[in-house]
Amino acid sequence: MTVTAREPGPAADADAGNPDAEVPWRRLHVRVVVVDVVVLVLSLIPTAVTMLVFHLGFDSFSIWTAIATTSLGVLGAVGDLVRWWRTWYRVTPDRVEQRTGVWFTSFRYVPRERIRSVDSHARLRHRLAGLRVVLIGSGEPKPSFRLDALSTAMAEELRRALIGAGDRREPGPAAAAADRADDRPLDGNPLIARLRWSWIFYNLVNAWAFLVAGFLLWSSFWAFQLVGVNLADVLAKLVDWRDLGVGWSIAVAVGGTFLLGVAGHAVGFVKDNWGFELLRTRTDTGTALLTRQGLLQTREVYRDDARLRGIHFSEPLFWRWAGLCETEVISTGLTGWSAANEPASSILPRGPIREARRVAALVLPDGHRPMEAPLTPHPRRALLRRLWWAALVPLALAGLLAWSAALGGPPAWAWLAALGLLPVTVQCARVAYRALGHGIVGPYLVLRCGLMSRSTAAIDRGAVIGWTVRETLTQRLLGLLTVRVSTAAGYRFYQAPDLGIAQAVAFVNAAGPDLVGELLVPANRPPTPPE
Amino acid sequence: MAAMTQALPQERAPALRPPRHRVERRAILLWTLNAIVTALVSVGGLGLTYGLWEASRPYVGPLLAVAAVFAAVNILAMPTWRYLVHRWEFTDRAVYNLDGWITREWRITPISRIQSIDTKRGPLQALLGLTTLKVTTAAKAGSIAIRGLDARVAAEAAERLTDITQDTPGDAT
Q1: Apex CA A450: angle with CA A453 and CA A397, to 5°?
Q2: Which of A350, A468, A509, B35 could bridge B74 with an S-S bond, Cβ 3.0-4.6 Å?
């Protein structure tokens, strides 16, 4: 097989005409081997000690822990040796290359133009051996290269070669931001929004109320236990439960819990959003959106305008009917989701959509109003696809239930109950269909979709770093396509499901004509067969 | 091959033209082998359960039948179907890839946004002389993996792509 001769790596440099062929491949520093051998010898010690000093045989328990420790150490050291043996790298005038792997080999190329950072760090054993682990990054979330390890001098040389000669690279984003900031002085009122106390009502009622109440009850139960009061007894005496009867008891308990939860929410909202302000402010590198809020603990979040790529509304199902929405900026470096805390991308407490739209227009730097523009609806066939799912899910569920009922599982009527879901799912399909929409407003792509939470995103088309057009089997039958735009900001991708074919092509083409134009065929010409 | 291409429903696909190059024919073999390995694990596991644990048979039996049908389709139809769908190319501005079988996906990634280019191969691929070319951007969803390329073609493509990328001013995103 000819392929083995062309295996990427040092052996493959025979190809003439490649100007990079004479750049030698380099290994990681040879002292890595020394370190590994030392680690290997050190990890033999526990077993040796137990066997030779304590004269323990294979029947005792401690010998096995020693052997486990030893084998872990030996395996690690041998693995690291293999890694050293199989890793090559080189820096040519144009790019950085690395080849690694034994069974699964990989060969990585990164153009030098893309290199953004060279960091190095060292653990104790590296430090003792005069080695550094070098991380070369190109703006990806993870570093592109991890050279473990080079000598300190080699690491420094590499850093100077890649970053020191900064003349061929463009000014960094910070400089660009400063330029932009100079173009656009901070005009008018920097204050964009301020807390209105009426918003408190929008933030009181939700499904979490019971959880909040449960947590409050649970923690106060234990707090009262500390001072010798049993909260359960107190609550039992508070109301004459026997007089109320079962129905009313449940109603009172649920209602009371709910009210308690609402009160908890109210306190939380006041504590977190006291004195809330959203404003645009100057920073060292340009301008930023700043939110300030909090009663006991003030929270200030700066969001650099140079990283702003768009804005995102999410409208959960029932709140949407009440005209409420949540507002986030789409910004690189701010992830859109966080379990612990209100995400930093959120710039406004939940509130009326009118207010969110007013804020969106002020937040976007160029005066466009993409969140208010009418969007193009998707073809009726998209509703058909949703109805297909609306029918399929209850039917499949009913089928499964009927089957397991036949095997003696759930009661026989359960599958009929599943069919009872049909009206609900059909209604959901209609709601989901009405949520679909897309459009282009100035430099912004607007994509809207979602059933449980309708999401509307306006993204600067310059921030799009990839297009995906997807067609499933049902979509092919119905003539629909899903368009997905990838971006480095926010949720990483935003999608417009089930566009008509012509719509999808027009949308993609309008958004990136220089990119997509040459990939299109005029409608009247058949596609050329591939070579 | 041209006749088979005409038979494909490319005409009704969006007016996006299909990318220029097909992948290697050997990829059919690779996908078949992969499908066989997957089938051995899934159908084999269920079969063992069915054979050894009698009480589970009423539940495992139908599952086993379904898994067997899926595995058969996956082994017999998927590889050839994939081969007929998969296409790739790159222009001076973009990497363009079409893949999938039942579900098809067209991906376009601007060269100005490429962060790194990899070629990867596992043991089966090495045996067949095939390589995966991977183009990574700052958004994971925007990355492209072109599977089933000849090792030499992939290496040359990676080098040419790196050169184009080097000459295309990038963007820190």
Answers
A1: 95
A2: B35
